[in-house]
Amino acid sequence: MENRMLKSRMYLVTSASLAAALTLSACTNGTAPNAPSATSSAAASAASAPADVTFAQMMIPHHKQAVEMSDDILAKVGIDQRILDLATQIKAAQQPEIKQLKAWLTDWGTDETSTQGMDGMSGMGDGSDGLMSDADMMALNKASGAEAGKLYLNQMIVHHEGAIKMAQLEVDEGQNVDAKAMASNIVATQTEEIGVMKSILATL
User: Fold this and answer.
1) Distance CA 150, CA 159 (A)
2) What's the domain of life for this entry (predicted)?
């Protein structure tokens, strides 16, 4: 009788040890219950807030217009070389950013068409985006020589100021780390370029 009880206890101990070993193996070699998978982690890294989406949707046409303005001035003759160098620099910086912004919108499951409008970021929607009107763009297109150079600089200063406001709002309100990093870079780069443009204007 005593021998049977001893065997029974040994069986229970062995079973408990085996169960513990299986549980430990599942935790160390498998995926713990409710642990996020690699797929869900990747999705989280691409997550965005409404401010991130609005930033991308607003900045794409803004950058496109800056590139158009720069193409316009680069096609003219009699333009100060410093202005031509600046226009080339602006194109080189903003064209890759347009491509990246479009890629983010695709990753976030949306497109370039802004559905949130200028109210997508607090503080915008009051005409402070710095975009040129059709009349402004036509004036730059028709201008020539030194007049065109001055007009380009004056228009681009206003344009940059609008971009800086949008970018600063992304820094303050956005959640996507990469988008916030781009916005921070835009603030720094375009603030510096405004200083350069004002310096050139002072000598024309």
Assistant:
1) 14
2) Bacteria
Neighbours of 97 (CB within 10 A): 17
Q: Helical H runs in the chain? A: 2-29, 38-45, 50-74, 81-107, 134-142, 145-173, 177-201
Decide if 66 contacts 156 (C-beta within 8 A): yes
In terms of CATH, what superfamily is 48-201? Ferritin, core subunit, four-helix bundle (1.20.1260.10)
- Residue 100's Cβ-count burial label (10 Å; 0-12, 13-18, 19+) is middle
For residue 143, what are its two tokens?
């201008």
Q: At residue 139, what is the residue type? A: A
Q: 0.90 exceeded by the pTM? A: no
Q: How far apart are CA 20 and CA 8, in angstroms?
A: 19
Q: Cβ(168)–Cβ(41) under 8 Å?
A: no
Nearest to 160 by CA among 130, 134, 139, 203: 130
- Whether 104 and 45 have beta carbons less than 8 Å apart is answered as no
CB 129 within 8 A of CB 165: yes
Tens of pLDDT, residues 111-169: 887 544 444 444 444 456 899 999 999 999 999 999 999 999 999 999 999 999 999 99
